[in-house]
Write a structure and sequence with these properties.
It is built from 10 helices and 7 strands. With about 280 residues, the protein is of the alpha/beta class. The chain has one domain: 3-Layer(aba) Sandwich (Rossmann fold), CATH 3.40.50. It has a 5-stranded parallel β-sheet with strand order 1-2-3-7-6, sandwiched between helices. Strands 4-5 form a two-stranded antiparallel ribbon. A hairpin with a 2-residue loop joins strand 4 and strand 5.
Length: about 280
């Protein structure tokens, strides 16, 4: 949303209701794409839907008809396997027709399993291999700092992704340079492929780690639209880390908090149940 348009909608409660409604649409859209393609990553798609909705339908400054406008805010989807949600929000924001979502993962489709800026407007950088998005975001933020540009840089990481050392090298650089234009959002659903994060390589105390690297840290409910809008709208003198506590598979009872739904495809009966639950 363009900042000028957002300023007109100054009622936080109404803005949050819109974000929640669009997040539920993202969830339904992502699941439809996964079922039609018979593959995908539904757990992370559903946990990140509210975050993506808050960004694209309230916080970010962009013009989908001019996706490379120099003054645009930059968003990098570091957890690039969650393309069901990411492509849905890009289509919903007008970067390409929603009808194209039905081509997901099909031959010659622009909608690959991992996002590519070569194919799709609105994709700032190719992601998929974890641990790459945050370093790129730091580089973009440094460029903005050098140019004294007004744009902000947002990057969404998975929590399991933070076990990659490249993330902490980037965080150290961001803190050292006091990149006030950088916001890191952690989709803290506490599950990665196959197991809880804390059983794999423990991340806690996560907030203290980001703070030690020179970040302001905010911990919020990642499914609370008002909290997301307020946290993501904040900009201070240091880089910001928003730790968004989420539920893997949020909104679909049999997927919630189940590591097995990191990837996979619902059966027809499961899909029907999911749609009923997401319609509530």
């Amino acid at each position: 949303m363009n900042r000028d348009n957002r300023a007109e909608a100054d009622d936080l409660e109404a803005r949050a209701a819109h974000v929640a409604e669009r997040a539920n649409w993202i969830r339904r859209s992502a699941l439809k794409m996964i079922v039609e393609a018979q593959q995908g990553h539904p757990g992370g798609d559903l946990s990140s839907a509210d975050i993506l909705s808050a960004l694209y339908f309230d916080v970010l400054n962009y013009d989908s008809q001019q996706p490379n406008a120099p003054d645009r805010d930059r968003f990098i989807m570091s957890k690039g396997h969650c393309t069901g949600a990411f492509y849905s929000v890009l289509a919903g924001a007008g970067f390409f027709p929603e009808e194209e979502l039905s081509t997901y993962l099909k031959p010659l489709s622009r909608l690959n399993g991992h996002p590519s800026r070569t194919y799709l407007p609105g994709v700032e950088t190719n992601t998929g291999p974890l641990g790459h998005g945050l370093p790129v975001a730091v580089g973009v933020a440094i460029a903005g700092q050098i140019d004294k540009a007004d744009f902000r840089v947002f990057v969404l990481t998975g929590d399991g992704e933070l076990q990659e050392g490249s993330c902490w090298e980037a965080a150290m650089t961001a803190g050292h340079r006091k990149l006030s234009n950088l916001t890191v959002i952690v989709d803290r659903n506490r599950l990665q492929q196959g197991a809880p994060t804390e059983d794999t390589v423990a991340l806690e105390p996560l907030a203290n780690k980001w703070n030690a690297f020179g970040f302001d840290v905010v911990e919020i409910d990642g499914h609370d639209p008002q909290a997301l809008i307020q946290a993501l709208s904040h900009q201070g003198p240091r880089p910001l880390c928003v730790i968004a506590s989420t539920v893997k598979g949020k909104g679909v009872s049999y997927m919630e908090n189940q590591a097995g739904w990191h990837h996979g495809c619902p059966s027809p009966a499961q899909y029907e149940q999911a749609l009923k639950e997401l319609a509530a």
